[in-house]
Design a protein that fits this description.
The structure holds 2 protein chains of 2 kinds.
Chain A lengths: L1 E10 L2 E11 L4 E5 L6 H8 L7 E6 L2 E2 L7 H6 L1 E4 L11 H12 L4 H14 L15 H13 L5 E5 L7 H16 L3 E5 L3 H7 L2 E6 L2 E6 L1 H6 L4 H11 L4
Helix pairs in contact in A: 3-4, 3-5, 4-5, 5-6
Chain B lengths: L7 H5 L1 H6 L9 H27 L4 H15 L3 H16 L5 H26 L3 H9 L4 H31 L11 H12 L3 H35 L1
Helix pairs in contact in B: 3-4, 3-6, 3-9, 4-6, 5-6, 6-8, 7-8, 8-10, 9-10
The chains are: A alpha/beta, B mainly alpha.
Chain lengths: 244, 233
C-alpha cells in the first residue's frame, strides 16, 4: 500500500529523512513515534506529498510519487490526512467543511453529500453540530469533525499527524476512540503519536525514528517490552516515567 | 466683496457642479467624479486580485513580470501614469481615446498595483494549514484558493481595500490635468469665470469630497460588521 525505498529528504542542509525503508500493508495500522525533530511528521507528510522527497522512491497505492505523470491531486483524494491543528475551514459550517471536497472533486450531488456527511458525523458522535462553525467547537470536537472531513472522500489510507497533541487531556480519549473504531474497520492507517496506550492496543507495528532515521520497527508488545535500540529505550523510559 | 463668504456662487452653479452640462452635453462635475471612481474601483478590484495572485505564483516566469510591473507602477507618481496613458494609449491603439477612458485606465493601473499588495498580504495572512487541509482532500491549488483561502482573506482585506478606494476617489481629481471635467475641473472653471469667489468654491469642493469619502468609509464599516457576524453566528 505504501512503500518507502531508500527515501531521503533535506531541508537545506538538514537531513530530515535519511534512507527510509518502510512497507505498509493494506489494512495495517502503523504508529510512528520518536523525539521531536526526528522527522516523523515529515515522513507522514511525504505520503501525500505535502512534502516532496529528494531521493529514493515512494509508492502509494501502486503510484510512484516521483513520477511526473502521477496525478497528485487524484492520489491525495484517496488519502485522508488529519492535522495536529485540525485545520477546519473557519468560514464554513461543520457540514460544509465535510461536503466541500466530495461536491467539488467527486461531483457528488449536494443532497447526497450532505447525507453522507451526516452519517459520518453520526459516526464521530457530532450529528447535532452540523450547523455549528468550527470556532464554536471544543478541540476534541474539531478534531473529530476533521476526521469526518477526511473520511468523506472515502479514502483508502488515513494519515494522522499527532492528532491529539493540541488537545486538552480530557479530550484525547474521544478522538482516540474514533481512531480505534476506524482501525478496527480495516482502514490502512499511519499515525504519528505519543499516545503509547493507543499504539499498544491498536497498532500492528511501531516505528521508532530519531534524527531522520528509522531505528526500529517492531510489533508493539515487543517494542514496549524489549526495545532493541538504545535510543528507543531512552525514549520509552522518558515517555513512560510517572513524572511525564 | 462686501461679505466675507458668499455662497451664492455655489447655489447659482449647483447643477453644473453636480452633473456638468448633462443631459444636454457630456456628464461632468460630481457625477463624472463618481463615475470615474466607481468604474476604476471595480476594474482595479479585479486587476488587483489578478495581479496579486500572479505575484505570489510559484512559477517564476509568471511571478517575475508581475512583480516588476507592480514595482514599476508603484514607483511612479499617479500624475505621471495618467500623462503616460494620455500619450501612450492613442499611440498603441492607433486612434484617439476619450480622456475619461484614459483616466480610468491610468487610475485602474495605478490602483491595481497597490491593491495587488493588499491581496498578497491578505492571502499570505491565512495559515498555511488551511491550504494544506484543502490540498489533502484532493482539491487543486486554484480550488483551495477560491473556496478556502480567498473567502477568508478577502474579509481581512476589506479595511485596506476601503483605504485604497478612498484614495481613489480623491485621486480622480488629477483627471483635470488632461481636461476631464470632473468636480475639481468644474470648480476651477467656475472660479475662472466668476473670478471673485475662490475660497467659497474650494471650500465647497473640499466638503463634497469629504462627504463622499466619509459616506464610503461608514458604509464599509457596516459591511465589515455584517460579514464578521456571519462568520461567528
Amino acid at each position: 500500500m505504501i512503500e518507502f525505498n531508500g527515501v531521503h529528504k533535506w531541508f537545506k542542509k538538514l537531513h530530515v529523512l535519511n534512507d527510509i525503508n518502510l512497507h505498509v500493508k493494506p489494512g495495517e495500522v502503523v504508529v510512528v513515534c520518536g523525539p521531536s525533530g526526528s522527522g516523523k511528521s515529515t515522513l507522514i507528510r511525504t505520503i501525500n506529498q505535502l512534502e516532496p522527497i529528494n531521493e529514493g522512491t515512494l509508492l502509494v497505492d501502486g503510484m510512484n510519487l516521483s513520477d511526473k505523470k502521477t496525478d497528485i491531486n487524484k492520489l491525495r483524494a484517496e488519502i485522508g490526512f488529519v492535522f495536529q491543528q485540525f485545520n477546519l475551514y473557519p468560514h464554513l459550517s461543520v457540514l460544509s467543511n465535510i461536503t466541500l471536497a466530495p461536491i467539488k472533486i467527486r461531483n457528488t450531488p449536494k443532497a447526497q453529500a450532505q447525507q453522507q456527511a451526516m452519517a459520518l458525523l453520526e459516526r464521530v458522535g457530532l450529528a447535532e453540530k452540523r450547523d455549528a462553525y468550527p470556532t464554536q467547537l471544543s478541540g476534541g470536537q474539531q478534531q473529530r469533525v476533521a476526521i469526518a472531513r477526511a473520511l468523506a472522500m472515502k479514502p483508502r489510507i488515513m494519515l494522522f499527524d499527532e492528532p491529539t497533541s493540541a488537545l486538552d487531556p480530557e479530550m484525547i480519549g474521544e478522538v482516540l476512540d474514533v481512531m480505534q473504531k476506524l482501525a478496527k474497520s480495516g482502514m490502512t492507517m499511519v499515525v504519528v503519536t505519543h499516545e503509547m496506550g493507543f499504539a499498544r492496543e491498536v497498532a500492528h507495528r511501531v516505528v521508532f525514528m530519531d534524527q531522520g532515521q528509522i531505528l526500529e520497527v517492531a510489533p508493539p508488545e515487543q517494542f514496549f517490552l524489549h526495545p532493541q535500540h538504545e535510543r528507543a529505550q531512552q525514549f520509552l523510559k522518558q515517555l513512560l516515567s510517572p513524572m511525564h | 466683496m462686501d461679505e466675507f463668504l458668499n455662497f451664492q456662487v455655489i447655489a447659482d452653479n449647483f447643477t453644473y457642479f453636480m452633473i456638468g452640462r448633462y443631459p444636454k452635453g457630456p456628464l461632468g462635475g460630481l457625477g463624472l467624479t463618481l463615475y470615474l471612481a466607481v468604474v476604476s474601483c471595480i476594474l482595479s478590484m479585479f486587476g488587483g486580485l489578478i495581479l496579486g495572485l500572479l505575484s505570489i505564483s510559484k512559477k517564476r516566469w509568471v511571478r517575475w513580470p508581475s512583480v516588476v510591473f507592480i514595482n514599476a507602477v508603484r514607483g511612479l507618481p499617479l500624475l505621471m501614469v495618467i500623462f503616460w496613458m494620455y500619450f501612450l494609449l492613442p499611440a498603441l491603439l492607433g486612434r484617439t481615446v476619450p480622456e475619461s477612458r484614459t483616466v480610468i485606465f491610468g487610475l485602474t493601473l495605478f490602483t491595481s498595483a497597490y491593491m495587488s499588495q493588499i491581496v498578497r498580504a491578505g492571502i499570505e495572512g491565512i495559515p498555511r494549514g488551511q491550504t494544506e487541509a484543502a490540498l489533502s482532500t484532493g482539491l487543486k491549488h486554484w480550488q483551495a484558493m477560491i473556496y478556502i483561502v480567498l473567502p477568508q482573506g478577502l474579509r481581512n482585506m476589506i479595511p485596506s481595500f476601503v483605504n485604497q478606494f478612498v484614495s481613489l476617489i480623491k485621486d480622480t481629481s488629477l483627471a483635470f490635468i488632461v481636461g476631464v471635467s470632473e468636480l475639481t475641473h468644474v470648480g476651477t472653471q467656475i472660479n475662472n469665470r466668476t473670478m471673485a469667489y475662490p475660497t467659497e468654491i474650494f471650500i465647497f469642493i473640499a466638503a463634497v469630497y469629504f462627504v463622499i469619502c466619509y459616506a464610503f468609509t461608514s458604509l464599509s464599516r457596516l459591511l465589515e460588521r455584517k460579514l464578521s457576524v456571519g462568520s461567528s453566528a
